[in-house]
Amino acid sequence: MPSNPLKLTLCGISLQNPVIAASGTFGFGHEYAEILDVSRLGGISGKGLTLNGSAGNKGMRVYETPSGMLNSIGLENPGVRHFVTHEADYMRALGPAVIANLGGHCEEDYLEGAHLLNDADIDILELNISCPNVKAGGMAFGMLPETAADITQKVKAVSRHPVMVKLSPNAPDLVAVARACESAGADALSLVNTFLGMAIDVKQKCAVFENVYAGLSGPAILPIALRMVHQVAHAVTIPVVGMGGITSAEDALKFLMAGAVAVQVGTMTFADPKAMLRIIDGLSDYCAQEGLDNLQQIVGIL
Amino acid sequence: MPSNPLKLTLCGISLQNPVIAASGTFGFGHEYAEILDVSRLGGISGKGLTLNGSAGNKGMRVYETPSGMLNSIGLENPGVRHFVTHEADYMRALGPAVIANLGGHCEEDYLEGAHLLNDADIDILELNISCPNVKAGGMAFGMLPETAADITQKVKAVSRHPVMVKLSPNAPDLVAVARACESAGADALSLVNTFLGMAIDVKQKCAVFENVYAGLSGPAILPIALRMVHQVAHAVTIPVVGMGGITSAEDALKFLMAGAVAVQVGTMTFADPKAMLRIIDGLSDYCAQEGLDNLQQIVGIL
Amino acid sequence: MAEIIKNEPIANGIYRMSVFGAPLGRAGQFFMLRVPGALDPLLGRPISICEIDADKGETTFVYQPIGRGTAQFAALLPGQQIEAQGPYGNGFPLKGGRTVLIGGGIGTAPMLQLAKELRKSDPARKIDVFLGFREEAYLEKEFESYADNVTRNIGGYVTNDVDFALDATYYACGPSVMLRAAAKAADEANASLFVSLEKHMACGVGACLGCTCQTEHGRKRVCKDGPVFDYREVRDAI
Amino acid sequence: MAEIIKNEPIANGIYRMSVFGAPLGRAGQFFMLRVPGALDPLLGRPISICEIDADKGETTFVYQPIGRGTAQFAALLPGQQIEAQGPYGNGFPLKGGRTVLIGGGIGTAPMLQLAKELRKSDPARKIDVFLGFREEAYLEKEFESYADNVTRNIGGYVTNDVDFALDATYYACGPSVMLRAAAKAADEANASLFVSLEKHMACGVGACLGCTCQTEHGRKRVCKDGPVFDYREVRDAI
Ligand SMILES: Cc1cc2nc3c(=O)[nH]c(=O)nc-3n(C[C@H](O)[C@H](O)[C@H](O)COP(=O)(O)OP(=O)(O)OC[C@H]3O[C@@H](n4cnc5c(N)ncnc54)[C@H](O)[C@@H]3O)c2cc1C
Ligand SMILES: Cc1cc2nc3c(=O)[nH]c(=O)nc-3n(C[C@H](O)[C@H](O)[C@H](O)COP(=O)(O)OP(=O)(O)OC[C@H]3O[C@@H](n4cnc5c(N)ncnc54)[C@H](O)[C@@H]3O)c2cc1C
Ligand SMILES: Cc1cc2nc3c(=O)[nH]c(=O)nc-3n(C[C@H](O)[C@H](O)[C@H](O)COP(=O)(O)O)c2cc1C
Ligand SMILES: Cc1cc2nc3c(=O)[nH]c(=O)nc-3n(C[C@H](O)[C@H](O)[C@H](O)COP(=O)(O)O)c2cc1C
Ligand code: FES
Ligand code: FES
Prior knowledge:
The complex is a heterotetramer, with 2 copies of chain A and 2 copies of chain C. Chain A is an alpha/beta fold. In chain A, 34% of the residues lie in helices and 20% in strands.
């Protein structure tokens, strides 16, 4: 019996395929589990958590742009404790690798959150230092190598789980941040989070979002995200998980060839809930066509 | 007789409206003059010039992406001398304000180019320190405040024309670069040039572009470009000309409300050659509907 | 993927589209509709079920082309495909006894299937329908197949026509001003009122948290926990 | 904006679309075609004029849905609109005397209007047409209205069928391999050959410099200075 050509190991965790639902776009799995066979996914990164939870931002929260969308959800979430007691086991039962995405307003929140997550049966902690939608939020940590390294190192010291640091494309020097996180002990990196963008309601003569700026995602950003993944993957030796506008197996292959060992898919799931299943099928077909024993053979060939 | 509500003054030059053809997307005006009434435009920024001209980059040069395109033209151009003797007067005769876009490989090239342009009857020199497609090219100057200020100040010292510095969205700290150019004497700023992006040909397992990375433009980038124009316009007091993905009068109004006194339109002209005329008509209608004496009244209201 | 059977204007700026092959839903639910293939417009547009013909397997939508997405729908012809994801949302609860349906503008659309289901669930009940339009009425005739009375109002406040003091269940869908007026009247008359809310949506299934609102019972998602709510629960979100 | 009159498959994976309202061009010119409204796909797709019916004001295109843009074209129905910008490009020079037309695959499309114009310009001249296809022939019948001989080749090298030693003007459009073979044969026979080139395009009018190539007379734009060139001028660009 031929083994599964899509399987891989990420941070010591075995994934049945490299297609992971991106944080904030898949809840904790419940909603899409009603619509599609989520057990087929490689992993699920849950909605970004903060220590005490949050009601998120006021006003308009989602706004479509050409081939993309801006969001200003502002990390609405039920808090880490709720996740540990009510969501983690549900996610585990779904089958795919379980990734908890942790944001924070300050160092204490991150460390306490990471500490609490030690009680949860998760596979990977995705350290979100790149959410652009919360004032004094995660992104502040992700902009500079020093602060990114500092929080990475401290969370690593607290957490029993592998730590994957999620990077911001808005960092002035993304490669330096990536290297700093690697040096600080990160087990993997994921990128990109959303790009800081703006929308204006011309009729009302005002910004669409209460925070004025919001986060851009979707196919529109793919060319920039792909370039960043290529740059970062060439600068570090830890695994990189790539994302940003992936819509198809072909898009996913681009990120793999650019150096990502796995991908996450976010916005496209909104447009087409079954997009990730199509992508997984497409990657299988690709391995068959190309006669690849394992898809990882094409990782970083560019 | 009511005066034209679209007119404005930019760097002491009077423009009949704030819609300018973006550099590199309109040649020197010949081609589109066969198709549309180019005399109606507010201005035309000619193809980016380098001192001695260039054949541009090899291989694939344009590639469509979701709601956008990557280009790697690499400043193919006939050189400054050719422009001065053969193109400047033609552009002048078209009617709209004449903007010469000057790129460079090194300081000497910029200064010699600016010097030669003193012999041409142009309105504004657009100093391109942001072309991502030429190795050791303009973008190197545009990445840091110090180098940007230095070249701005030196070109200002040589040029008899007002100097508008064209900024790169790839600069680590765009606002700092903008402020530095202002301090160094720039008469105006224009932004954004293209975003560094990447495309991969999955079938061929190679980068689409010989230079691997190329410049992303078009509607896809609008939300990020708008945010950057908003940031820069709030940080400087010299006029800002905004661009990036503008397709409609509504898009143009967004940039004006964000603080730009005028806009440039590039990629959309490829998709619809008459896009700028539609935009001008739309801006006229807007002034009529809103009862504005002059469109500049909405500049920077956000 | 569903196939377009019909797609025609039924009033000035109002289209009716029937599709075959979309899973059958129920009154108050909606689909995320999307022209397949292109990545712009990217997201589905939430459009309510207006009528279901279960025998033919057809679902009918009534929509107003107001922006890029809906304008694209209006250009589609029979035989072409449309992505219809859903049905999503909770739908209207079918209560017993007398019912009063209030629709404002394009908010009349989901009321038709509601009238149909209410009638089917109880052929003898009384169903009063109040329709408000700014300029031109539509769907009136269709409502007459299921309702006892159809009252229409053009250019005025449809809620003024409604007696909220009946022993009845009230259902309302329409612009915020209308829903607020209905809520106020229901408050005064202590009536039972269900409203269907609208919010900008990205996913339509409850995953993105783009459409949440504050309710009496904590934060709820309009797409998943709604769009239909007891008006008392969502008073601040109307 | 042009209106679609017809849009149907004429062979496996090959469509023919006739539109009304596009300005009339001439053989060898092309239009940038684009589905209006949406911003993705964003750019027009260069598609050659296959045939012009000047009386009806109709232009016909023959195209292969190979990617997102052309797949969108294939889904259009009569009555719908398509943006047809053009005609762009120089077109084929209409030479006197005997002519030989060589088309490979979808490159046969522009040859039809060329045959038509050549015939019209000289009803007595000799026109030989050679068509090469990978699997299935199309447009053969249409060529018979204008040509003296139509030779087709399926699965082989169409250029092998052509005698380049005639006192004739040769015109070729097709894949690079075919054009290179034709150029080689023309070199050997010292024949006069015009080729129509393909390059990825953004503007189609000569403004973006996305499609330039090195020629004997400096850099030229395929869209504006071509797409038709004397093969000697563009030998390195084929
Ligand atoms: C549950 C629900 C049911 C609906 N049922 C109907 C119906 O039956 N018939 C009908 O004509 N309309 C209905 N609407 C409104 C309809 O969804 C919007 O008019 C439509 O999304 C506008 O899209 P557009 O592309 O034309 O406009 P654009 O302004 O171009 O849309 C841009 C973005 O904003 C969103 N958006 C814009 N206006 C609205 C709005 N009023 N509500 C929600 N999102 C909006 C779009 O979905 C899109 O993501 C319903 C809305 C909801 C939430
Ligand atoms: C002057 C000229 C005339 C042509 N005439 C015809 C014709 O009559 N019939 C026909 O079927 N095809 C013709 N082509 C080829 C046709 O333009 C491409 O097949 C088409 O652009 C592919 O678009 P897509 O969206 O389907 O593919 P995609 O791969 O999705 O297109 C992505 C981008 O690449 C460009 N592109 C992809 N393939 C080509 C190509 N082979 N040549 C140029 N650009 C390409 C597209 O224009 C688009 O910008 C012609 C090309 C040129 C340059
Ligand atoms: C509505 C929405 C909510 C998001 N919430 C989170 C979040 O909570 N934590 C996080 O790390 N990223 C969040 N993201 C970012 C995505 O995980 C992803 O990094 C980004 O959307 C780019 O991928 P895409 O283009 O495939 O969507 C969110 C994105 C969207 C669109
Ligand atoms: C094909 C192409 C060529 C360009 N060449 C130049 C150039 O020579 N000089 C320059 O300053 N900008 C150049 N640009 C950038 C545009 O002027 C503009 O800054 C950018 O495309 C964003 O605007 P848009 O989204 O409206 O196209 C070029 C852009 C394109 C697409
Ligand atoms: S639209 Fe995504 S949660 Fe409601
Ligand atoms: S496609 Fe723009 S110059 Fe030819």
